[in-house]
Every structure is written in C-alpha cells, then in structure tokens.
Write a structure and sequence with these properties.
Layout lengths: L2 H19 L5 H12 L3 E9 L5 E9 L8 H10 L3 H17 L8 E7 H4 L4 H12 L7 E6 L7 H13 L3 E7 L5 H8 L3 E4 L11 H16 L3 E4 L5 H9 L4 E2 L51 H10 L5 E5 L5 E6 H9 L3 H5 L14 E3 L4 H9 L9 E6 L2 E7 H18 L9 H13 L4 E9 L1 H7 L2 H19 L3 E6 L2 E6 L5 H15 L6 H6 L1 E5 L5 E5 L2 E9 L7 H17 L4 E6 L15 E5 L3
Helix pairs in contact: 1-2, 1-4, 1-6, 3-4, 4-6, 7-8, 14-15, 17-18, 18-19
C-alpha cells in the first residue's frame, strides 16, 4: 500500500472509532457522526512572517467545520468533547492538515503549525502512533512541524503534559505555547514545558502602538522568552503601526490580517518586506547587545554518556562548563563542572549514572539569551536571578539556535566600560547623556536612514522659579523631570542638553505623540508639590521677567517640540536641530503644557488650529 494510502486508511480508522462513541439521539450527535464519516472538515492556512524582514517562515493550519452550528472550531471541539471523541477530532484534523499542506505549493519548503489540544496530548499515544507516522508517510520532516499547544480547560497534571511536550521535542518536532496571556495555564505551562516558541494572544498585539500598558506587557514577555531561549510570535496583527512596535520589541514573528487572511491554499503576504519598518532589532540604549559577548565554545550532544563527559572534564581542567545542544542547534541545558563532579562523588554516584546520557545530569535552566538582547537586559537577568555558584556563563542563541557562550566576567567588563564612558559624557546633575552622546545618537540614526521621532522638552517659567525659591530647589525640579522622562520613555534614549532642556528619541515613531501626551499629563499632576501651599493656591509666583519688570508667572509647565523624521529624508544633524528648535518654539507659543509635532517632509509653516496635518498641537487642561 502507498504511503498516502496508509495515511488515508488510518484516518478512516480514527473516523470509525469516533462514530462508535457518538450517540445519535440528538441532532448534534447525528451531525457530528456525519462530519467524521464524510470528513467534512476544512483546513485553512495563515502565514507566520518574520517581523523584521517580511519573510514567510511557516503557515498555521486552522480548522473549520461545515457551515452551520459546528462551523466555528471552538463549537466543534466542545461538541466532540460532549460526545467523548475530542481526541479523535483533534488527531483527524491534524492528519488532514498535514496531508493538505504537503500537497500544496508550500508543502515542499515551509513549516506547518498544528494546533494540538492539551487533552489530546495527554493521551500519551498521540504523537508516536498517530501524527508522527503521518508526517513521515507524507514525506515531511518532523522538524518542519510546530505543535501549538492549545487548551479548552485548566490542566491539573502539568507534569504529565511537560513529559508529553518533551516527547514531541525528542522526536524532532518544535513546540509552541498558544495564547499566552489568555489561556488557563499559560505561565505555569510555559515554566514547566520550556517551549520553542511563545504565541502572545491577539489582545496584547492589536492596538499596541496606542497602548503603553500592552507594550510594557509584551516587552516583559519578550525579555522572559529570550532569557529562556524561546522565540515570540504576535497573533492578530492588523495594523502597520503595531508591526512597528513588534519590531522594536524584538518580536521574531507575527501573523494576522495585515499579512493575509486564512485561505484553503497557503497564502503569501500582501504586506511586502519593503513595507516593513526599518527599525533594527539589535540595539539597546547603549547600542551594544549580547552578540558582543559571544565566544565559540565546544558543546555536548544530549546522548553523550556521563562517563564520556567525566573524561572530558578530567582531560580539559581549565573549562568549567559545556552547553548541551541538539544537532539542529537547539539548546537543552548546561553541564557545570562543580555540580557534575559533586553528583558523581556521592556514594554510588558514578555506578548509578556513568552509562546514562548527559541530559540526565545537566542543568535544564541555565541563562539563555538571544544575541539581540541588550547588554543591560542580560545584566538584569543575572543580577535579578538566584543562580548561586552557577554565575559563570550565559548561553547565546540566534533565533533559538546555539551560537556560543558569554562569560559573566566579560559581561561585567563591558558593562563597566559602558558606565565609565556614559559617566564621562553625562550631565552631572541629572546623570543623563549630555550633548556629545545626544549628537552621536542623532547622527547615527540619520546615517542609517532610520525613521524616528525626536522630542525637545523645555521647562516653562523655570528661571523665575529658580530665582523665587533657590537653586537647590531648581535642581530638584531638573532631577524630577529626568526621572519622569526615563520612566515614561520605556527604555528609549533620553538626554540632557543642559539647564532645563532635554531630548527624548524614540525609534518607534508612532509612540512620539503618546510619550509627549503622557509626559505633559504626569508633569502637570506632579509639579504642584514643588511649590508652597500659598503659591499653589495663588496658581503661581511673582517674579521678574527678562526686562526686570515684576509679573506673575503660573506654575511651571512643559513645552515639547517633536519632529517625526521619516526614513532616508535627512542627512545633516544641523537641519534636524533647526527643526527641533522650531517645533519647540511653536509649542511654547501655543501655551503651557503643549506638544507640537512636525513632520520633516511637510510644509514649513502651518496653523495648528486650522487642521493642517503636518502639525499637531494638544494642550493638556491643568
């Protein structure tokens, strides 16, 4: 019998098994039996795309029932659960998806993402007897299949599920955890299973460009995923502005209507690579990433015996650790000399373990980071974690594949050099980068043809405050503004020009307006505490203007001039500085607590009140 015929025969056996379980006393049961008997299931495919390049990396298979009450997959699966044939429906839908994908134009070269119910995985025989052979029979390699773990209910036995997931991975399949942030077991399941990929629920992706809360959540998820060696997929992507945020947060993949709607034949994106943001993924605030730590280092295969590894440690006494890496580059863990030798020195330790594979004695939770992770983030991962004496090295991966190790000693040296250099050019009052780093950062972005937004922040009525109170009180205001800028920026570049002038640069150009609005709102709500009760009640202070004449000055406010620089439209920093100054003056002229946005390719004059699009002015009522 042909391979395809064998697969078809197994599908028929699964359908027959389901039909024997289904009672036909109800209309739902009758329809469910018909669906199995006729295999009336549709498979649609939606692409998963690399955020930075627009390259298609695979397709997710999406199940649909026949038109009617069981068309939606959730309704279909719940009906199958009620009739005791959930596993059969899950496995049959996967086998049909594999066959239809293998027969499509994408089947010779793409990855297939299959949804797998937790309830189905926990049957134990699921992978070995069903899906695995089907993949082989249809001529696909298991490493081209990604199992997406989905769930209908909370799962009590996470340990058993973790074992099933490990079985998938040992057979060469990759594993993705679906709907992180919305599922029942999300974070605990993630911690126990160590999946290859994390799929973030669409709620946190849709509209992220306009939501600081969603951005902070996703930023934390990405940092955690990369520290564990997992890639991140954003689901439900519909807007280019949201894609820009995903790129800036180092999210590897995304799927959604922005690229393509689900289709019976695996579709290719309508959103071309040329449309993708030019934002680079490999920069932190200092421009240095974990890539600078990477040193080649010999690794061990998971089937190396404990005896072989003991011999290696004895022959090479100057090496204190070895990563354990699968042939395809996936990191499984780390073997630390001290821990390893201590286990063997226990009574009967060598006799018990010397024939076992090394993955039995390896550390399964070393620090693993993507090479694009900012050095500052790597440092925080180490200092915020309790790794005891294992603080010797971090394993580095590139898109989930092993590239080398970085020692903590080298990381400390690099971080120290960064701090020394930053201190040398920092403003002594605020501690923020001064004029030289500001100019270097702006020129670098211009040289690279990057799109970004530069905000020029100026304090209104600062000098009268300084004269009325004291220079010490004025210094408190400067430090307050610097802290506010750093917090609101979310890790973007913040510099202190001098006096009461600051600069904030965001590479996520869509965030410029949101940052300006938040800065003004928080400054306006906090500045009152720096005035006396009498002055707060009066709404300001009496001081002298620039001509030495007495006048009343209101409470301090912010004027923010923002320039949105489109990619490859400016080359000289002097031109940009002129635009930033012009935008700031326009904001000051419009009144206190105002931001003013200038598109650098728009007209040079506009009235913010006539709706002219190159300029936007928003005043915060205080």
């Amino acid at each position: 019998m042909s391979q395809s015929g064998t697969c078809c025969q197994r599908c028929q056996e699964i359908a027959d098994s389901a039909c024997t379980k289904i009672a036909t006393a109800s209309a739902e049961g009758t329809e469910l039996r018909r669906i199995f008997r006729e295999r009336d299931l549709t498979t649609l495919f939606q692409p998963l795309v690399a955020c930075d390049s627009g390259r298609v990396l695979g397709w997710e298979a999406l199940l649909r029932g026949p038109h009617g009450p069981l068309h939606r997959p959730l309704d279909l699966f719940r009906a199958a659960e009620r009739h005791g044939c959930l596993v059969e429906l899950d496995v049959l839908s996967q086998r049909l998806a594999i066959r239809r994908f293998a027969e499509s134009p994408a089947g010779s070269d793409g990855s297939l993402f299959l949804n797998v119910m937790i309830e189905s995985v926990q049957t134990g025989a699921h992978l070995h007897n069903l899906t695995g052979p089907c993949v082989e029979n249809l001529g696909m390699d298991s490493n081209r299949v990604v199992m997406e773990i989905s769930e209908l209910h909370p799962t009590a036995d996470i340990g058993a599920l973790a074992q099933a997931v490990s079985h998938f991975q040992r057979e060469g399949f990759r594993v993705a955890l679906d709907d992180v942030g919305a599922g029942y077991n999300g974070l605990r399941l993630w911690a126990e299973t160590r999946p290859d990929m994390i799929k973030v629920d669409r709620y946190f992706v849709h509209g992220i460009h306009a939501s600081d809360e969603k951005r902070r959540f996703l930023e934390a998820i990405v940092r955690l995923a990369h520290s564990l060696g997992s890639q991140v997929v954003g689901e439900g992507l519909e807007e280019a502005a949201d894609l820009e945020v995903l790129v800036g947060l180092n999210v590897e993949m995304a799927q959604g209507y922005l690229y393509a709607h689900p289709a019976p034949v695996p579709p290719f994106p309508t959103h071309t690579p040329a449309d993708h943001p030019a934002t680079r993924r490999d920069e932190g605030p200092t421009g240095q990433t974990a890539r600078t730590l990477a040193e080649p280092h010999e690794s061990l295969l998971p089937f190396h015996s404990v005896a072989d590894v003991a011999d290696i440690f004895l022959r090479v006494p100057h090496i204190d650790f070895y990563p354990v890496v699968k042939p395809d580059g996936q990191v499984l863990g780390m073997v630390w000399r001290r821990e390893f030798m201590n286990r063997l020195l226990y009574r009967y330790g060598y006799d018990l373990f010397h024939r076992k594979p090394i993955n039995r004695l390896m550390d399964r939770h070393p620090i693993i980071v993507d090479v694009r992770t900012p050095l500052e983030t790597v440092s925080r991962l180490i200092t915020d974690s309790d790794f005891g004496h294992r603080k010797e090295a971090v394993i580095l991966v590139d898109n989930g594949r092993y590239v080398g190790v970085g020692t903590f000693t080298e990381l400390l040296r690099l971080i120290t050099d960064i701090k020394v250099q930053s201190a040398h050019y920092a403003n002594p009052l605020s501690g923020l980068p001064g004029n030289i780093p500001i100019r270097a950062e702006l020129q670098r972005l211009l040289d690279e043809g990057r799109a970004f937004t530069a905000l020029y922040i100026d304090l209104d009525h600062f000098k009268p405050y300084n004269d009325h109170y004291s220079y010490e009180d004025g210094d408190k205001i400067i430090r307050h503004v610097s802290h506010l800028l750093q917090r609101v920026s979310g890790g973007e570049f913040v510099g202190h020009i001098g006096g009461d002038d600051f600069v904030l640069i965001t590479r996520l150009s869509s965030r410029g307006e949101a940052i300006a609005a938040q800065l003004i709102a928080e400054f306006a709500s906090s500045i009152g505490r720096f005035y006396s009760a009498v002055d707060r009640e009066a709404g300001g202070i009496v001081g002298k203007d620039r001509q030495g004449e007495p006048r009343r000055f209101p409470l301090m406010s912010l004027s923010i001039g923002a320039v949105h620089v489109r990619a490859d439209t400016l080359s000289h920093q002097q031109h940009l500085s002129s635009l930033m100054t012009r935008a700031k003056k326009a904001a000051k002229a419009a009144g206190g607590n105002t931001w003013y946005l200038l598109e650098n390719d728009g007209p040079q004059v506009a009235n913010p009140e006539n709706g002219n699009p190159p300029f936007v002015s928003v005043a915060n009522a205080t």
